[in-house]
Amino acid sequence: MTLLGSNAKLLKHNGEKYLIAGLTMAPHTLGGVGNVCESATAGCKASCVLWFTGRTVTESVRAAMIRRTQHFASDPQGFTRQLHKEINRHVRIALKGRLKPLVRLNVGSDLDWSQIAREHPDCTFYDYTKVRARLLDLGWPENYHLTYSRQDRKSVV
């Protein structure tokens, strides 16, 4: 199973010379192994763009997202080893093509990937988060850029 992939949204790069990859896991509790979006609200879960639009509505794509989430939960060390290998490969391919490597690790999740970013200073990481504390943390690596994802008005579930 491959962890990093691409989708139409990730390929939009405004004419910049980037090679972009992302890790798409099943959002919130849809992977069946806990919640990978700790600040997901009822409204967020009910209208998850990732789960209800585009190719992610197909059974095969959803199954792959669930498998990645389950692999993350059942074998975190193996998952992390594989993720490092795939990021290294992504960086090599990007640099060979004179492109800037970008990786979004929370395409369908909202996890703290700061340690992964620290271990790959030659790559830029970016994510969206609903976890306000992450935005206030001054210890994030310089190569990891976070954008706050607006909450709906319902309470966190």
Summarize the structure.
The chain is α/β, with parallel strands linked by helices and 157 residues long. Helices cover 38% and strands 15% of the residues.
Low-confidence stretches: none
Largest sheet data? 5 strands, mixed
Structural class: alpha/beta
Q: Proportion of β residues?
A: 15-25%
Distance between the termini: 31 Å
DSSP strand tally: 5
Strand order of the largest sheet: 1-2-3-4-5
Percent in helix: 25-40%
Instruction: Calculate Rg over CA atoms.
Output: 15 Å
The DSSP helix count reads 7
Mean pLDDT: 84
Secondary-structure element sequence? EHEHHHHEHEHE
What is the global morphology?
globular
Structure characterization notes:
- With 157 residues, this protein is of the alpha/beta class.
- It has 7 helices and 5 strands.
- Strands 1-2-3-4-5 form a 5-stranded mixed sheet.
- Helix 4 crosses helix 5 (76-96).
- The N and C termini lie far apart (31 Å).
Q: What features would you highlight for this structure?
A:
157 residues, globular, 15% strand, 7 helices, five-stranded mixed beta sheet, alpha/beta, single chain
Please describe the topology of this protein.
Blueprint: E1 4-5, H1 8-11, E2 18-23, H2 42-46, H3 49-52, H4 59-74, H5 76-96, E3 100-104, H6 114-118, E4 124-129, H7 132-136, E5 144-148
Parallel strand pairs: 2-3, 3-4, 4-5
Antiparallel strand pairs: 1-2
Helix pairs in contact: 4-5
